Amino acid sequence: xxxxxxxxxxxxxxxxxxxxxxxxxxxxxxxxxxxxxxxxxxxxxxxxxxxxxxxxxxxxxxxxxxxxxxxxxxxxxxxxxxxxxxxxxxxxxxxxxxxxxxxxxxxxxxxxxxxxxxxxxxxxxxxxxxxxxxxxxxxxxxxxxxxxxxxxxxxxxxxxxxxxxxxxxxxxxxxxxxxxxxxxxxxxxxxxxxxxxxxxxxxxxxxxxxxxxxxxxxxxxxxxxxxxxxxxxxxxxxxxxxxxxxxxxxxxxxxxxxxxxxxxxxxxxxxxxxxxxxxxxxxxxxxxxxxxxxxxxxxxxxxxxxxxxxxxxxxxxxxxxxxxxxxxxxxxxxx
Length: 335
Fold this sequence. Notes:
One of its GO terms (molecular function) is ATP binding. Pfam families: ATP_bind_3 (PF01171), TilS (PF09179). InterPro entries: Rossmann-like_a/b/a_fold, TilS/TtcA_N, tRNA_Ile_lys_synt, tRNA_Ile_lys_synt_N, tRNA_Ile_lys_synt_subst-bd. By secondary structure, the chain is α/β, with parallel strands linked by helices. The chain has 2 domains: 181 residues, 3-Layer(aba) Sandwich (Rossmann fold); 78 residues, Uridine Diphospho-n-acetylenolpyruvylglucosamine Reductase, domain 3 (2-Layer Sandwich). The longest helix has 30 residues. It is elongated.
């Protein structure tokens, strides 16, 4: 008799990712078996992921390890991290590491914690020479990300949610993006895996928590079941569109940019708005404006120098980047 359907589903999802990691490893002409780490908080999603990695990795000749991050935001969080590390070792993962981080304040508590967490995971991957780090984001997380992007009004790329593969050289992999949260929880139950429910996930002080416990249930009540699946599908369609527009913008940039780094206003005006704004964003980032601080309203203001020119003065962007129209050229400079 085979495993429970939930257990089979999480294992299949991880198996597919490990095959991809192995293929990439082989193309690099590496002889040693690749190391794959699972980032584990001790919650149902990441514990299910750790169990699936434990099962599949030896069958494919992959080394499997784990890392848990202590954000230091709750009393006793160090003990919790140590306990999660013990659980990972009990699954026979090796190496296993518990890392303590300091969370800053930039961008709000959720963004600051995320930035610090990824910095720690990057450092751990480098330290251990890991080929990939698995993350336990599910289809439910994807739906929440799409809704948050919609609320920010920040465009197609924001609506595309999380990609299955991100990071330098495709370091981060999200095997569960097509599985719902309930499947992961059921897989833990069927394997008698202990899980920890982070109280922050139920704290209404956090935007994502309110969305998870109030917003999405309200949408499902109003629109019926299937909202999560529809939002996840929207993410994939938006990602395909955004990828195509980004490629178009990269090609268009070469036709509007001169050797001095200024942009041809007439050529920009002739581009479709979605492409033109991407070119402007790329140029602003290239001049030194931080991508995380550059919002749609900034780009719209720059766009008006092209589409609604009334002799406006220079526009100041984050990162001390200035934009001004000079004759038929757009000049974007840091200073």
